[in-house]
Amino acid sequence: MSDPVFLRACRAEPVDRVPVWFMRQAGRSLPEYRALRGTGSILEAIADPALACEVTLQPVRRYGVDAAILFSDIVVPYHAIGFGVDVVPGRGPVIAQPFRTARDLERLRDLSDADIAHVTATVDLVVAELAASDTPLIGFAGAPFTVASYLIEGAPTRDFALIKSLMHADPVLFDRLLDRLVAITVAFLRAQVAHGARALQLFDSWAGALTRDEYRRFALPATQRVLDAVADLGVPTILFGVGTGELLTLMTTAGSTVLGIDWHVDLDEGRRRAAKPVQGNLDPARCLGGIDLGVTAAREVLGRAGREAGYIFNLGHGVLPATDPAVLEAVVRVVHDEGRAGVQ
């Protein structure tokens, strides 16, 4: 068992402990993060490799997690090519001029290495810092459908009215949009691996807004193309979405190594539907009630994880800002001490 435990679990190999990391583990719940970041823009922080490296490493030091995830954002490539993206505190990504017509395709130019030099510089720094502990770095990107939802809606939404209207009214234009997003996403992911990322996560956060037929027609093909285009890199890939319980049997055909399971589906059922290695799926809200409640919730998830290899403990979405870091520290301990999936 010479490879890191996280990578072994991705490949459904035996492990000496269940690996754990947390989506959005480098973020607002950590006091050291808030002290370092202050009130500046997240995009400005991401553009500073030394700062972004430090933020990436903070949760690894504090929690003892088995993987780091790059401090970045799914809109970074689109900000880098000048599409007019900002991340507004308390709201999320906001687009100054949302995608509306075929003319907007011209604004989605190819992503160059120079565009994301700050990101790859951060990856270089993080990989160097993690070398001694052999902790893998996870790179990531937004899946084409989820990115399209931001570009078309212009901001986070609950009803997805604009993107669904475009999908159904002009599917040819929607396909052309996703073609551009696939190319940008692939370039972004490949660059992260070229600089040392050892796994990739594709966030299709809003795929759960789709029906099965819509997902099959408008999201799955583009996701498959992204994953196919990075398959030769030899690193595990994780596909994750929120509210996607009814889509899991379709998502499992997309070609990822691992399927992320959110908290809306019991983990044992999620494992059955996925039929491949899985990651998940503690409800982030269960970590808000203190250490005892968080540990109890973690044990419930571990109980449903079973003993079969190919399991990574995580939350069913990102860490909530009000989370006490001591709760996550305790969750990591109980996962390492009591997890049994794939442990030999």
CATH topology: TIM Barrel
Number of domains: 1
The rough form would be described as: globular
The appropriate CATH architecture is Alpha-Beta Barrel
Average pLDDT, rounded to a whole number, is: 96
Number of strands: 9
Give a quick account of the main beta sheet: strands, pairing sense, barrel closure.
7 strands, parallel
CATH class: Alpha Beta
Percent helix: 40-55%
Spatial ordering of strands, largest sheet: 1-4-5-6-7-8-9
Uncertain segments are: none
Q: Helix- and strand-based class?
A: alpha/beta
Query: What radius of gyration results from the CA coordinates?
Result: 19 Å
Portion in beta strands: 5-15%
In whole angstroms, the N-to-C terminal distance is: 10 Å
Total helical elements: 14
H/E series:
HHHHEHEEHEHHHEHEHEHEHEH
Short account of what is shown:
45% of the residues lie in helices and 11% in strands. It has 344 residues and is α/β, with parallel strands linked by helices.
